[in-house]
Specification:
By secondary structure, this protein is of the alpha/beta class. It contains 15 helices and 16 strands. The chain has a seven-stranded parallel β-sheet, with helices on both faces. Helix 5 packs parallel to helix 6 and helix 6 runs parallel beside helix 7.
C-alpha cells in the first residue's frame, strides 16, 4: 500500500469520526430535511444521473462484464425514482436515536433504562450497485451515523455524482458534509486500509460478490454485518394451492435474476409434483430458464413431454446462480425439504407454499434463516418491501442484526441510570 493511499484513508477516517458526533446529536427534523432535499435533487438530476451512469455501463460492457453485472450497475428512471421514494420512506420512519425504554426503579432507588444510540462510523464496501450510495447514506444519516462509502471502480462516475448530491443535501440542512464521504480512488489497497481502521470505523458492511466477502472475512479487523450467499429455496408442500404455487414460484425466480433474494432451488413434494411442475416449468422454459433437475423431477417432466433438462449435480444445490438457471428437487415430505435447506441453504431467505397451517408453523419455527416466508415470493426479502425505507444490506449472521438491515440494525443500546443521590452500600 502506498503512503499516499494510507494517508488519504486515515484523513477520511478522522473526518468521519469528527462528523459522527455532529450527526449523533442532530435533530430528527434536521436529518429529515437533508433526506428530503436529497430526494428532490435525485429527481431533478435524473437525466444527469442516467447520462453519467451510461459512461460506467459502457465501460463495464467494454470490459466484458456479464448481463447480471450490467443489470446491477444500470440506473433507469424506475430505479432512480425508487431511490427517491426510499429516501421519503425513511423520512416517514420514526427516528430511533435517543429513544429510551421505560425506566424501571430498582431496589437501590436508581431508575434503569436503555437508550438507542448510533453505532458511530459505518464503512460500506460495495461493488456494482450505485443505488447503494443513496440507500446506505440515507439509512446511516437517519440512524445518526457517519458513513464512509467505497464503491466499485466500475461505478466510480455514478457514485461520485451521487455523493455530490448527498453532500449538497447535508449542507442544506446545516449538517457536516464529512458525515458522508465517498472514497474516490479505485485503488484496491484503499479497502485493505479501510477494514483495519478500528480507531475510526465501528462496523464494516460489505455488499458484493463472494470474492469481496471472503477477502474481508479473512483480513478485516473491524467487525462486519454481512452475508456471503443467497441460496434461497421455495418448498411447494403437498397441501399447496397449485395456482398460487405457480404464480409465487414464477415470480421468485424470474422477476429479476440478479438479486440475492431470487429463488435458486425449488423443492416440490412428490404428491403434488405432477400437478404443479409441468405448468410451472413450461413458464420457466418459455422465459429461457435452464432447469437442473434430480431424477424424480426429470421423470415427472419427461412424462409430460419436457426435454432440454439438465441433471443436477451436488454443486448445483450449493450454487447461487444469479442467472436464469434453477435447480429443482422432488422431496418426500417437509422433513426432507427442511433437511435439504439446512444442508445447502445460506440462511438468507426460504419459503413454503402451503394451505396447511401446521406445516407452515413447522417451517417457520424450524428453518434457520434470516427471513422465512409462507405463501410469498422470496423476492420480498428486501428493506424497501419490509417498510425499512431501504436496506444497508442483508445479514445472515445471528448477532446484532439479521435479515434486511435498516435503521435499528445501525444502532445499539446503552444503559442509562437516573439517580437521586443513591450510593452503593
Amino acid at each position: 500500500m502506498s503512503k499516499e493511499i494510507q494517508d488519504m484513508m486515515q484523513d477520511i477516517g478522522k473526518r468521519a469520526r469528527s462528523a459522527s458526533r455532529a450527526i449523533a446529536r442532530a435533530s430528527g427534523e434536521q436529518k429529515n430535511q437533508a433526506l428530503l432535499h436529497i430526494a428532490k435533487l435525485v429527481r431533478q438530476k435524473a437525466d444527469e444521473i442516467q447520462k453519467v451512469n451510461l459512461v460506467d455501463v459502457e465501460r463495464a460492457k467494454e470490459k466484458g462484464q456479464d448481463a447480471a453485472f450490467i443489470d446491477r450497475l444500470t440506473m433507469t428512471i424506475k430505479t432512480i425514482e425508487a431511490m427517491a421514494l426510499g429516501l421519503e420512506q425513511i423520512v416517514s420512519l420514526e427516528d430511533p436515536i435517543g429513544k429510551v425504554t421505560a425506566l424501571k426503579k430498582q431496589a437501590s432507588g436508581i431508575e434503569l433504562g436503555q437508550m438507542r444510540v448510533p453505532l458511530g462510523v459505518i464503512g460500506i464496501i460495495y461493488e456494482s450497485r450505485p443505488n447503494v450510495t443513496i440507500d446506505a447514506a440515507a439509512l446511516c444519516l437517519k440512524s445518526g451515523n457517519a458513513v464512509i462509502l467505497r464503491g466499485g471502480s466500475e461505478a466510480i462516475d455514478s457514485n461520485t455524482l451521487l455523493a455530490q448530491i448527498i453532500q449538497e443535501g447535508l449542507a442544506a440542512a446545516g449538517l457536516p458534509k464529512d458525515a458522508v464521504q465517498v472514497v474516490t480512488t479505485t485503488d484496491r489497497s484503499a479497502v485493505g486500509e479501510m477494514i483495519t481502521m478500528t480507531q475510526y470505523i465501528d462496523v464494516i458492511v460489505p455488499r458484493g460478490g463472494k470474492s469481496l466477502i471472503a477477502r474481508l472475512m479473512a483480513e478485516a479487523r473491524v467487525p462486519m454485518i454481512k452475508h456471503l450467499d443467497g441460496i434461497c429455496h421455495t418448498y411447494i408442500d403437498a397441501d399447496a394451492d397449485v395456482a398460487m404455487a405457480v404464480k409465487v414460484c414464477d415470480n421468485a425466480k424470474t422477476q429479476r435474476y440478479a438479486p440475492c433474494n431470487a429463488m435458486e432451488t425449488l423443492l416440490v413434494n412428490k404428491s403434488i409434483a405432477s400437478k404443479v411442475l409441468p405448468e410451472l416449468c413450461k413458464i420457466y422454459q418459455d422465459k429461457g430458464v435452464e432447469l437442473r433437475v434430480d431424477a424424480l423431477t426429470r421423470s415427472t417432466l419427461e412424462a409430460s413431454g419436457f426435454n432440454h433438462l439438465v441433471d443436477a449435480t451436488e454443486e448445483d444445490w450449493q450454487t447461487e446462480y444469479l442467472a436464469p438457471i434453477l435447480s429443482i428437487k422432488t422431496v418426500a415430505d417437509i422433513d426432507e425439504a427442511m433437511n435439504h435447506i439446512e444442508r445447502y441453504g445460506s440462511k438468507h431467505t426460504d419459503a413454503i407454499i402451503t394451505n396447511n397451517q401446521a406445516q407452515a408453523d413447522r417451517f417457520l419455527r424450524e428453518v434457520d434463516s434470516a427471513s422465512v416466508m409462507v405463501n410469498a415470493s422470496t423476492r420480498f426479502a428486501d428493506g424497501f418491501e419490509y417498510g425499512l425505507g431501504a436496506e444497508i444490506g442483508i445479514s445472515n449472521d445471528k448477532l446484532h442484526a439479521r435479515g434486511p438491515v435498516g435503521l435499528d440494525g445501525l444502532t445499539s443500546l446503552k444503559y442509562i441510570v437516573m439517580g437521586h443521590g443513591e450510593i452503593r452500600g
